[in-house]
Amino acid sequence: MRILIADDHGIVRGGLKLLIDRQPDMEVVAEAEDGVDAFEQALAARPDLCVLDVSMPRMTGVQAARQIRAHLPATHILALSMHDDERYVFDALKAGMSGYVLKREVDSALLNAIRAVNRGDAFLTNAVERSLIRDWMSSDSDGPDEPLSPREQEVLKLIAEAHTNKQIAEILHLAEKTVESHRANLLRKLGMRDRVELVRYAIRRGLTEA
Amino acid sequence: MRRSTLLTQVLAVNAVLVGVTALVAAVVARDRLPDATSGDGLLVLALTVSSAILLNSLLLRARLEPVHRLAKAMREVDLSRRGRRAEAPRHAAREVQQLTDAYNRMLERLEAERRESGRAVLRAQEVERSRIAQDLHDEVNQALTAILLRLSATLADAPWGLRSELQGTQELVAQAMDELLALARQLRPTALDDHGLVPALASQVADFGRRTGLRTSFSHTGEIPQLSDEEQLVIFRVTQESLSNIAKHARARAVEVQLSFVGRTLLRVCDDGAGFEAGAATRVRGRMRGRPGGLGLNGMRERALLVGGGLEIRSAPGNGTTIELTMGAT
Fold first, then answer.
1. CA-nearest residue of chain B to A83?
2. To which H or E segment does residue B154 belong?
3. Which residues in A lie closer than 8 A to residue B176 (C-beta atoms)?
4. How far is B124 from chain A (nearest CA, A)?
5. What are the angstrom distances between the C-alpha of A68 and each of A20, A75, A97, B133?
6. Which helix (H) or strand (E) element contains residue A53?
7. CA of B145, closest CA in chain A: separation in Å?
8. Which of B291, B231, B299, B228 is nearest to B267 (CA)?
9. What distance in Å separates the CA atoms of residue A206 and residue A209, rounded to the nearest whole number?
């Protein structure tokens, strides 16, 4: 099984590689340190499975997953996260990730999750399921609504991280004009005036870290 | 040495003046009115002089009364109860009025400065807390994640005898991560940014119930007004501190948290625990002040003050404690 791992913390990547490479049926074929890197490496290495940290700079794990699924439909993706907040779980599953493992459970759950997801099954640990159910029961909504398209979310994250339109166009392989119109759409859809408000929104939505 | 009062000083001077004047007048008048220095004459003179001094004393006392009152107001001023001002009576002398005005202006400046520096301290504290939370989250917990992964990798090759020990270590690491996450969450109420005040409070109360096993309830009434970030944070922190006090001291079975936006903003946290005597509150306050991470009753009151609110604590032994935070008209 050929695996790509992505996490913005080198020590975590080191640990993942150590554990995964010890398994006779698994091999780490690519390492990435952010979402954009993960997407590009995935295109180049065509792994069977990607393990993506949910919170990463430039492009979150969730956003990278959406891109990877769009270009490599056969690749399975597993989310790795510090957060048991149900919002992250929803977003991950909606983006086409088929498993969600909390970092505090990696020791017991990671290998099982990788095998399950590689078989094409879904995988949630007990802790994640509990938090999902708890939230479902206490809230009156059936999952949060998302006003933005996936592409707009990608642009929003990069705006929040202080990239210029030109840089954003390069990272996402878009024309600069398109980025400008996305930016205008974002402001209009969210009813916001400036970048500061967009940044605040992006942080609140977990698209970028404060 | 005990200083003599302004009143006695003025009286003494006046008495000397009146006495000397009377005496001189008597001596000068002796040639024409021989009776003046006789026994009766001296008696009348003495009576006149003393009644003049008495009258003088009464009048002076009345005139000096506003000064005394101002001094008393200054002595008793308590900056944690804002908005109190000294008042000069209408008939007071201009100097007294000026003194009072100057004092009130000084009080205003003091209060404003105190408010500003209090705000700055709180803001700095929140920034620092969120930085620490971020570090715990991003650095320490990632390192612990790596440790968990490495232990798992080692576990496969470890001899049987070591396995259970390694597994025990993994459990400890996972526990440490849980505690760090909980700590980070306490330090920085991300729920407040992510979901807004009411859901954040609801989940805080529910979490508290799960953690302590106490029966908890949370309710809110009224339309949520536009609250500033600072006001929301005060409500959140006062709830947090009240709950943590209950867990530590109250020996309660049930806790009720109510938030009402009818007319004004009111947060009420009641427990059915041991309570304390009203007089003991200062002792409790003293003990809680130095607690790291906590706000203490004093800290809660200060926070309330900074957003123009008030904090009231009602308690009696055996009757639980109620903490009420009120903030302006909504």
1. B181
2. helix B141-157
3. none
4. 16
5. 21, 8, 10, 32
6. strand A49-53
7. 6
8. B231
9. 7
Q: At what angle do helices A61-71 and A86-94 cross, to 10 degrees?
A: 10
The ranges of chain A annotated as CATH 1.10.10.10 are: 150-204
Give the chain B residue nearest A21 (alpha carbons): B153
Kindly state the tokens that stand for A194: 């400036």
**Residue A30 and residue A42 in contact, taking contact as beta carbons nearer than 8 Å:** yes
CA atoms within 13 A on the CB side of B271: 27
Instruction: Report CA torsion sign: A196, A202, A208, A209.
Output: positive
Q: CATH homologous superfamily of domain B196-330?
A: Histidine kinase-like ATPase, C-terminal domain (3.30.565.10)
Cα–Cα dist B223/B293, whole Å: 32
- The helix (H) or strand (E) run that includes residue A49 is strand A49-53
> In this structure, are residues A179 and A156 in contact, taking their beta carbons and an 8 Å threshold?
no
The Cα B140–Cα B5 span in angstroms is 67
Domain ranges of chain B: 6-77+85-111, 196-330
**For residue A55, which of A31, A28, A79 has the smallest C-alpha distance?**
A79
ipTM at complex level? 0.73
Segment holding A100, helix H or strand E? strand A99-102
Two structure tokens written together for B295: 């706000």
Assigned token pair, A8: 């913005």
A150-204 is classed in which CATH architecture? Orthogonal Bundle (1.10)
What distance in Å separates residue B223's CA from the closest CA in chain A? 18
What is the distance between the alpha carbons of residues A98 and A117, in angstroms, rounded to a whole number?
6
Q: List chain B residues with CB under 8 Å of A16.
A: 149
Chain A nearest C-alpha distance from B213 (Å): 17
Q: Distance of alpha carbon A92 from its chain centroid, rounded?
A: 6
- What CATH number has the domain spanning A2-138? 3.40.50.2300
Sequence-distant (6+) residues with CB within 8 A of A69 are: A75, A77, A95, A96
Alpha carbon distance B241, B216 (integer Å): 15
User: Measured between beta carbons, which residues in chain B are less than 8 angstroms from residue A204?
Assistant: 193-194
Partner-chain residue, chosen from B134, B152, B178, that has the shortest CB–CB distance to A107: B152
- Tell whether B177 lies on the interface with A, counting CB pairs under 8 A: yes
Per-residue pLDDT 10s for chain B (330 aa) are: 578 888 888 888 988 888 888 888 878 877 776 665 677 777 888 888 889 889 988 988 888 888 888 888 888 887 766 677 888 888 878 888 899 999 999 989 988 888 888 888 888 888 888 888 888 887 899 999 999 999 999 988 889 889 999 999 999 999 999 888 888 877 877 767 767 788 888 888 988 888 888 999 999 888 888 888 888 888 999 999 899 889 888 889 999 999 999 888 999 999 998 888 765 554 454 444 444 344 577 778 888 888 888 888 888 888 889 999 998 764
For A9, name the nearest residue in chain B, comparing CA atoms only: B142
- In the chain, the amino acid numbered A159 is I
